[in-house]
Amino acid sequence: MSQCTRAMQAAQLDAALPQTQCTRCGYPDCQSYAHAIAFEQAPINQCPPGGQEGVRRLAEITGRPAWPLNAAHGEESARAMAIIDEQWCIGCTLCLKACPVDAIIGANKRMHTVLESACTGCELCIPVCPVDCIRMQPITGQATGWAAWSPAQAEQARVRYRRHMQRQAGRATIATVGPSSSSGPLARHHGQHEPAPGPEQPMALHDNRPLQATGAAPTKAEKHQILAAVLAKAQARRRAQ
């Protein structure tokens, strides 16, 4: 199979994945997993959100057997949404940085909340929360896999992830080069806000390489603030018991 054919197959595979960007497959995002299947012969049964129906779809594209979902990567289950207990949220913003589709809104030292329509159930916000105030709530009843997740939701998640990555890249560029007062590309990040692409206008990638997550680590000052807030919340919990 030629490189061009593999690239076309990778695009087909990416379109067949649920775009939850959960990393359970062992890759940074859905596009990376699709690329690995097409170019590195990665197994096609490593996507729990897609479930067995997802494996069948990938098998149809690749011509491989539709093996049972690999339990080492998780089990097929109902789709869940992240719920933040606002009573214990300390406003550290770590979950905002961890969310691949920007489904959490909030500000530093302000309560955060989850946009139900945008949450993919990836669970990436849970391990970064220092006060364990995030839980997952199943919202699709008995429906699992693709029965609990529509193509329209997958496309919305894909677009939101592309926007997220574009913003991350813009911030990284500004941090490295510094703000520019010229009319060059960086000027768009300062006062000139171009509308983000809609579902009918997906962002064009410059090459076939998969996008990589680039969440910023908290600074030393932020860590001190987070620790102080965590201790304060812990003391409040002990007093409430």
UniProtKB/TrEMBL annotation:
Keywords: 4Fe-4S, Cell inner membrane, Cell membrane, Electron transport, Iron, Iron-sulfur, Membrane, Metal-binding, Repeat, Translocase, Transport
Ranges for domain 4Fe-4S: 6-64
Annotated spans, Disordered: 170-223
Domain 4Fe-4S ferredoxin-type: 80-109, 110-139
Protein name: Ferredoxin
Cited InterPro entries: 4Fe-4S_dom, 4Fe4S_Fe-S-bd, 4Fe4S_Fe_S_CS, Elect_transpt_cplx_RnfB/RsxB, RnfB_subfamily
Keyword check for Iron: yes
A GO MF label: metal ion binding
PANTHER family for the chain: ION-TRANSLOCATING OXIDOREDUCTASE COMPLEX SUBUNIT B, OXIDOREDUCTASE
Pfam families: Fer4_21, FeS
